[in-house]
Amino acid sequence: MAKQRGRQGERGASAKRPSTSKTSSRASHQSKRQPSAPARKVVFDAPAVVEEPRTFRLGAVPGATPGKWIDTWKRRMPHVTLELVPIDAETQRTSIEELDAALIRLPLVDETLHLIPLYDEVSVVVTSAESHLLVVDELDPADLVGEVLITPLDDVLGPLDIPGTVAPEFARLETTAEAIATAATGVGIVIVPMSLARLHQRKDAGHRPLRGGPISTVALAWPRERTTEDVDTFVGIVRGRTANSSR
Q1: What is the pLDDT of residues 75-113, one digit of tens each?
Q2: Which of 21, 52, 154, 192 is the most buried (most CB within 10 A)?
Q3: Rounded alpha-carbon distances, angstroms, from residue 101 to 42, 70, 84, 98, 108
Q4: 36 DSSP assignment
C-alpha cells in the first residue's frame, strides 16, 4: 500500500514538473519570432560651410542699364554685396583694373580682356522741343542738312560724318549733358545712343531715331587673369543662365 502511494506520488510530481524540452522549444520559437533590434547607426551632419562676406564691384558707363541683372544677383548671391561703380567711357579701360568687371562701350580692343557684347543701341538726334525735326517719327541723315552738329568731348559714338551738317562756332563742350542742354535752346543738335538721351531727358528737348545712324554696343569686360567664381556667376546672369545651369 505504501509502495502504491509512493508510485502515485512520483507520478503526480512528474505530472506537475514542466517538461524541460517543451519549455526550451517554446523559448526557441519565441526567440525566432522576436529578433533583436538592429544596432542604430549614428550619422553626424557635416558642418555647414559659411562663406565670408565679400563685395563684387561692377563698373558701368553712363546709359548702361544693369538693373535686372543686379536684381537677379541679389536673389542668387545674397552673401556677396554688388557695388555699382559709375565709370566714364573715355577712361573705361583704366577703370577696369580696379573692378571685378565692367559694362563698357565698344569699340575696345585689348587682348588682356574678356569681352562679351551684350546689346546694341540705336542712335537718336536730340534737339529743341520746338524743332521741326520732331514732326516725324524717324529721321534720315538728309533731314539734318544745315543743322549745327554739337559733339561733346565725352562723345561715345566716335567721329560722325553727317553730310550737310555744320560745325559749331563755339568750343567743344565738356559733357553730353551740356551738349543736350545747349541743343535744347535751339542752337543745334546732338547725336547720342538712345540710353544717353533718356538719361539726360529734359522737358525742353526731344529726340528721334536716326535711320542708318551709328550703333553703340554695350559689352561686359573683365581682365582674363581675374576670372573668379563671382565673375563666372555674373556672366551666367547676363547670359540668362539659371542658378542650376551648368557653365
Answers
A1: 999 999 999 999 999 999 999 999 999 999 999 999 999
A2: 192
A3: 47, 13, 10, 9, 14
A4: P
Query: How does pLDDT run across 16-46, given as a tens digit for each residue?
Result: 555 554 445 554 555 455 555 566 665 555 5
**C-alpha pair distances (Å), 126 with each of 69, 169, 182, 188, 225:** 29, 19, 10, 9, 41
Q: Which residues of 17-46 are buried (b: 16+ CB within 10 A; e: fewer)?
A: eeeeeeeeeeeeeeeeeeeeeeeeeeeeee
The candidate with the shortest Cα–Cα distance to 190, out of 176, 201, 202, is: 176
H or E stretch at 24: helix 20-33
Sign of CA dihedral 229, 233, 236, 238: negative
Lowest-confidence range among 7-16, 62-71, 219-228?
7-16
